[in-house]
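Can't paste images in this forum, so I'm doing it all in text. The chain is below; anyone willing to post the predicted structure tokens underneath?
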Amino acid sequence: MMVRFVSIRMARGIVTLLLMVTFAFVVLRVSGDPVRSMLSPETPAEAIAAFRKSWGLDQPIWIQYIRYLQAILHGDLGQSVRDGRAAVVVVAERIPVTLQLTVPALMLNIAIGIPAGLMAALRKNSLTDRILMTSAIAGFTIPPFVLGLVLVLLFSVELSWLPSGGSGTVAQMILPVITLGIGGAAVLARFTRNAMLGVLGEAYVRTGSAKGVPWRRVVINHAFPNAAIPILTIIGFMIGNLIAGTVLVESVFSWPGLGSLLVASVLSRDLAVVQCILLFVAGAMVLSNVLVDLLYGLLDPRLRSGADK
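Text version of the structure:
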């Protein structure tokens, strides 16, 4: 049963990834002529035609798409028009730089969001609950680029405590990590509160309290492990969203990661690099959600039996 459960999840992930690749491929080509964007208006027609042929842009879009899928299956993601190197090499250079933000931001999400949600659930309708949930609403409604600009104005311009951009030091990481982490922590706090409230109303929790089991043990050993199953869902989505969310944050803080590379590649119509970045982001989101589904199956056998049926 476990083999079929894994196979179904993997098949869904592959289909999702194929749809993402197809959507990105079509949009990038119908949104404008990449050759006209890369070459100057004074370029002779013969040179334009030669450029199209050398990069395979002279063929119908469906032929380009089939060739692109065939190249992906052989591990070829194309070459960057800007510097002539393989697109996967250009993108791979930026991945560690982006992970320097996303990994600490995810840790910040969990470190703030889950304890805040637990505290709010255990003190439902109290002043603490209202303060935490009001702060959570404010946290995920403020756009990341707005929050980033506010942090720069406060801590860099007014107080001169932290640098406003760049990379390479811990001090330069603080503001972008906070910008990425606040919104996710707010969402996780609200989700954790709702999940815990649903579990705290179950009969086995009330029975444990009635038998004299310490409340802390009931929460830690029984309530939270059951509430953790749906919490895994939001964490899985957050992993992919953090990578996608670096586009704006890296632009605000001049962080040389995937986000900055994506913006530069879109402006220069470097299709191979743009497609490679989108493929990586989509793959990260699909992989994180497949892993969450697998953890679901390990934590709750009922899901495996439901998938088999």
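Residues 87-308 form a domain with the MetI-like fold fold (CATH 1.10.3720.10). The chain has one domain: 87-308.
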